Amino acid sequence: MKPLRVAIVGSGPSGFFAAGNLLEQDNIEVQVDVFDRLPTPFGLVRYGVAPDHPAIKSVTKIFDRTAQHENFRYFGNVEVATDIQAAELAQWYDAVIYAIGASGGRRLEVDGAWLPGNHPSSDFVGWYNGHPDRRDLDVDLGVERAVVIGNGNVALDAARILVTGTEKLEGTDMAEHALAALRGSAIREVVVLGRRGAEQAAFTPSEVAELGKLPGVDVIVDPADVPAEDKERDKARPPIERNNLKQLRKLAALEPTGADRRIVLKFLRSVVGIGGDGAVRTVSVATNELALGEDGTVEAQPTGAVAEHDAGLVIHAVGYHGTPIPGIPFDTERGVFRNADSRIVGYDGAPLPGHYVVGWIKRGPSGVIPTNRDCARDTVSVLLADAAAGKLARSEFDGAQVEKLVVERVPNLVEYDGWMAIDAHETALAEEEDRPRVKLTSVDAMIDAAQAAAE
């Protein structure tokens, strides 16, 4: 029987988990081609995970094993909508899974949010992780106070990176341009502002606990902002909330040491304006109180109190959104491809045969890396059920024909062997510096490394 041929657009965790799930099927042979617009695979594992969290990046070992499967191919440096079109993929393959993530960063919609010195967290994180699109971002670290808006893990990552001494970061895979900037940083205080209370914070307990272990950094939490310990009430809380409060109480009990740098966690605060003449100079912060909304959810409502604070850098860690691809129905409000039960659907709600979605572009920017494993399993299950039910129009193209077409369109195609050459080059650069790798941060340099190994 002819193998089922599936294209996956995007090589981050959700894309690779979907590929692995497809390739491990016993009752049907599947051929998987993974496309990525960058020469390098792994998406947010490479460009989103903080450089001082190397253990999280070890998931790429699983992806490497998937890539060694004889029915797996990687087409890097290929951009859908530029080099090839979505409609062409639908012709070339029996099914297409979109796993492009949510690379666009949101910023708060307040006056002054577009002044220089404002950065969506996606830009800032991409900058310090060496993403080619963000390598030239102008991050002014010559200021004493930064404000991070948001109360999730990304917000804590940004705060931690801004105050962590470079002596610790030198041993990571942080981009060299970011290390150079941080070596000369004047930042002494980072204020993290959460719109709701400590009980509603979206970060994880391990991220909070890590703040208290940073050398040379005081972490300031007002005890009045954290509910007092109540064993019966705490027992009834969801586990993450309960453990977050446990860690926050520990931080609130710490006495400041007079350290050179500090992180201040503030709850029930909203930025309502950003001021400055040509660049960020001040941030106006409103105090909130909690109230039950009409739907029963806890909402933050302004009390009317507003204070102005000096700040020269603002990181907006208030979410991500996906990027549209021509021909694929897009939900502009949620920033995802329109979908139902893992199937991409049209504006009329009807499924587009053979079109599927996984990861953040399916459900929005939520969860951690293992969340994408479950999400991928769900998507693959739906795809295979559709295949078994005869709902997929089988393509007349074979793998060789598709490869020929892709090579014609993209002379600088980077396949998985090319990525392995880039990987080897980066790790070789790091040998003398006792670092895991020195990242190449331009597409041209990546292509050169991939092609040099092939010569």
TrEMBL record:
By its UniProt entry, which Pfam families does this protein fall under? Pyr_redox_2
In this chain the FAD/NAD(P)-binding domain maps to 5-162
Keyword Cell cycle assigned to the entry: answer is no
The EC number(s) this enzyme carries: 1.18.1.2
Q: Which InterPro entries match?
A: FAD/NAD-bd_sf (IPR036188), FAD/NAD-binding_dom (IPR023753), Ferredox_Rdtase (IPR055275), Ferredox_Rdtase_adrenod (IPR021163)
One function term, GO molecular function aspect: ferredoxin-NADP+ reductase activity
Q: Which SUPFAM superfamilies match?
A: Nucleotide-binding domain (SSF51971)
Q: For FAD, which residues are the binding ones?
A: S14, L44, V80, W360, G367, V368, I369
> Which reaction(s) does its UniProt entry say it catalyses?
2 reduced [2Fe-2S]-[ferredoxin] + NADP(+) + H(+) = 2 oxidized [2Fe-2S]-[ferredoxin] + NADPH
This protein is called ferredoxin--NADP(+) reductase
